Amino acid sequence: MQAYLKLIKFDNLILIALAQLFIKYGLFEPFDIDITLNAFGISLLIVSTISLVAAANIMLHIQNKEYAIIEETSEAVISEKIMNRLFIIFNVIGVAIGFYLSNIIGKPKLAALFIVVSGVFYIYTTYLKEILVLKNILIGVLMALGLIGVTIFDLLPAITEQNRVSQKVIFLIVVDYSIFAFIIVTIREILKDCIHIDRDHNAGLPTIPITLGKERTTKLISGLTLIPIGLIIYYVYTYLFNNSIAVVIVLGLLVAPLLYFMFKSWGAENNKEFKTLSLILKIVLFIASLSLLLYQFILK
């Protein structure tokens, strides 16, 4: 069972599901804005989203020829045949539920979004895997879409001329979080490529660490971290500056860990350090998701 959970990256799926729930019940519900999905609807969206992300994770494992996806100390191995079957099953579940959800909210054209997401990683692994950085960007986009998807299916169908202004404010907050998630996940994926540099080299995959070398890549990662730090500081100064408690929370729980990450990544050399840094970014993502619960106290 542990092997299968690692195959689909279960911890990442939980993070996405929690972020979607926090958007729904921490951002939408407290402000009493017009929405489309009830509890059953958001449950369908979550299941569809994590199914498609699980399928993408499986396809990337197949591409990496990493069939023994658990720790080296374990004896369990998942064959490529089983992974292909799981990839199909998760894709079918994700697209089918997405199609059903799109129809019950009266927006059948939105089903195309699930079909595109379903096919993009197959197209990548089949035709586009030689393009440098594309994998890292696609995974970041997938995370961002998971967040924006809540607004697409819950918020946008309920927009009218009367509520357009209030709906737009909430929508833009989610977009900001989606951009932040995209940047953090992309940086984390580049960092993970440092961990798997030998595997990727043997598989013939063109990753940034293979192209630039580990040392230059760690410097690049450190430099890229300035982007989310700058965005957070700008966001705090623009929207939260009058709320001292919110400023302290954001600076202490988001900016401080990212500053630590930036300095430590500059000189990181071994996999133990890379894994610690990867964990820091995962914690930052979780804290950022939790912060969605604070808007009901900050904006009211």
Automatic annotation (TrEMBL):
Q: What is its main location?
A: membrane
Q: Where in the cell is it found?
A: Membrane
Q: How does it sit in the membrane?
A: Multi-pass membrane protein
Residues crossing the lipid bilayer are 12-28, 40-62, 82-102, 108-125, 137-157, 169-191, 220-237, 243-263, 279-298
For this protein, what is any one GO molecular function term?
transferase activity, transferring alkyl or aryl (other than methyl) groups
Q: Which UniProt keywords apply?
A: Membrane, Transferase, Transmembrane, Transmembrane helix
Looking at the record's lineage, which domain of life comes first? Bacteria
Question: One GO CC annotation, please?
Answer: membrane
Q: Per its record, how is this protein called by name?
A: 4-hydroxybenzoate polyprenyltransferase
Q: Which organism is it from?
A: Aquimarina amphilecti
